[in-house]
Amino acid sequence: MDLIRKLVDTTFSVTHMDAIDALRAFFVFSTCTILSISVPDSLRARFVTYGARATSTTVDSEPLARPDAPDRSRVQLALDRLASLRVPHSYFTHFYVASVLSSLFWAFQLLSRGPAFQAIATRIGPQHLEKSMSIHQVLLCWALMLVQGIRRLHESRIFSKPSSSRMWFVHWLLGLAFYLAATVAVWIEGTGTLMTHKLTLDDVQVTTAPTLRTFLCLPLFLLASGIQHDCHHYLFSLKKYTFPTHPMFRKIVCPHYTAECVIYLSLALLAAPDGEMVNKTLLSCLTFVTVNLGVTAAISKQWYEQKFGPDAVKERWCMIPGLF
């Protein structure tokens, strides 16, 4: 353990980062990774698409091209072998199990100032400790993240259909890492307050009127969550590969992705430390969510065009009305 601590501290020292900078760097690096495998057609077809939206390059777990085909280069063969390392699409449920368990774990750590919390808190620089979230912000954002995880876990169980679809194993690992990191992002910029104020059950009581920020952003979170749930329920009710006609889908191809972005945007605003407009750690988290879902939304629109014709989606935005 001492070796790991020294390695972490040395890395932070060399890179001039602390725990908050490292968490932001993780979201930025993950975003760049998604972009790097999504822009080239050859990589996107192998590693990003799956299920009904998979292109002719792959069929979920196996490449269509024969490994011994004469026109296959060693690089292409290596990429095909790498792309064949897939897990069942049902593993998406693991993301939300990880999210809920991680939220509960950090609740215990924050209440007891446990060793995991201390390990992070002692590696945060004074520039980040000075501007800190309030106790009520920490509790609210932690609770909203827990609610989000529980709702998505519930939906992944009741809105799932038997499927042989498989996804690339890196997608699965990256999803797990994202949710574990997101449950830290909702409170880490409140470490300065958490170090000087011991959490008790009294902190859960609402004794003051909500701020204007909370008054505006909390309903935004709840509205986006409700819309996303309604979209997921509607998609589950459709027969296989039916074109969606729900009002939320008439102008946007993937409104449930739009709602997901709004959820993380509301969290970034609700968790803004004192004197800041937005929580930069959660903003970097939002960037990853937007890029990751944006890539899938663009693929979905292309698939709808191929299956139902260009006219079916020509006036629909992929995910962000007026922009994308």
Describe the structure in your own words:
The structure is a single chain. This protein has 324 residues and is mostly helical. It folds into two domains: 85-198, no CATH class; 210-323, no CATH class. Helix content is 62%, strand content 3%. The protein has 13 helices and four strands. The chain has helices spanning 2-15, 19-38, 41-47, 74-83, 92-112, 115-121, 126-130, 135-158, 169-185, 191-196, 212-237, 255-270, 280-308, and strands at 58-59, 62-63, 86-88, 166-168. The strands form two sheets. It has a two-stranded antiparallel sheet with strand order 1-2. Strands 3-4 form a two-stranded antiparallel sheet. A hairpin with a 2-residue loop joins strand 1 and strand 2 (62-63). Helix 2 (19-38) runs antiparallel to helix 9, helix 5 (92-112) packs parallel to helix 9 (169-185) and helix 12 (255-270) runs antiparallel to helix 13. It starts with a helix and ends in a 16-residue tail after the last helix. Residues 55-67 have low confidence and may be disordered. It comes from Aspergillus turcosus. It is a multi-pass membrane protein. Its EC number is 1.3.1.94. The chain crosses the membrane at residues 91-111, 168-188. GO terms for molecular function: 3-oxo-5-alpha-steroid 4-dehydrogenase activity; polyprenal reductase activity; polyprenol reductase activity.
